[in-house]
Design brief:
Layout: H1 3-8, H2 11-22, H3 32-50, H4 59-64, E1 69-73, E2 83-86, E3 91-95, H5 96-108, H6 117-136, E4 145-151, E5 155-160, H7 162-176, H8 184-192
Parallel strand pairs: 1-3
Antiparallel strand pairs: 2-3, 4-5
Helix pairs in contact: 2-7, 3-7, 6-7
Length: about 190
């Protein structure tokens, strides 16, 4: 797929694809469109709740206001993770080497005019900020128990749906950073390399 095609995909197409990637086994047991719509509404709710003026806001300070320490680690890791939030330790680790490599790929693919290095770093922080907020604030849909499952054929159990959380985080970071394309485009760039 060409970069221009990726940039023109709708948010809904990206989010539906995310469901297929992360939760293919539950597609028949839930209304994907409804979960996507509610996750998008949740992202907009969090954005309004924060009352951030724009992406120039010091997101590190906002993250730290939740008692979370932001740590930058400059080591190469074998994982594709850009950042990792550990709720038990209240620590957000940003893997700066991975961030730099991915930003170089953004430049190589000709997306430098669409998102510069500073915006890219803000995009990462805003994505993680959403996860921190949903874990620490009440009544955030994407962190609630959405998925109803039967255990042993009759016991019903409800569980969180991690893919809904990701949809919320992607949408929140898109709104906050005023992107004209889905942040998921950046995720698939290594595949195009």
């Amino acid at each position: 797929m060409e970069l221009s095609e990726l940039l023109n995909k709708t948010d809904y197409e990206w989010y539906e694809e995310l469901f297929k990637e992360l939760s293919p086994t539950i597609l028949k047991s839930i209304n994907v469109q409804e979960v996507i719509e509610k996750s998008v509404i949740s992202a907009e709710k969090v954005y309004k709740m924060l009352q951030l003026e724009n992406s120039e806001t010091n997101l590190t300070a906002v993250i730290e206001s939740y008692g979370v320490t932001v740590v930058h680690v400059d080591e190469l890791i074998s994982s594709p993770n850009i950042a990792l939030y550990d709720d038990s330790e209240k620590k957000l680790v940003i893997f700066t080497s991975t961030v730099k490599r991915l930003h170089q790929l953004i430049l190589k693919k000709g997306m430098g005019e669409l998102i510069d290095e500073k915006q890219f770093k803000q995009l990462i922080l805003s994505h993680e900020l959403y996860h921190i907020i949903e874990m620490n604030e009440a009544d955030i849909y994407t962190y609630s128990k959405i998925l109803k499952r039967k255990r042993f054929g009759f016991l019903k159990k409800t569980e969180q749906l991690p893919v809904a959380s990701e949809v919320g985080a992607y949408h929140f970071s898109k709104i906050l950073n005023q992107l004209q394309f889905s942040p998921r485009v950046i995720e698939v760039l290594p595949i195009l390399a």
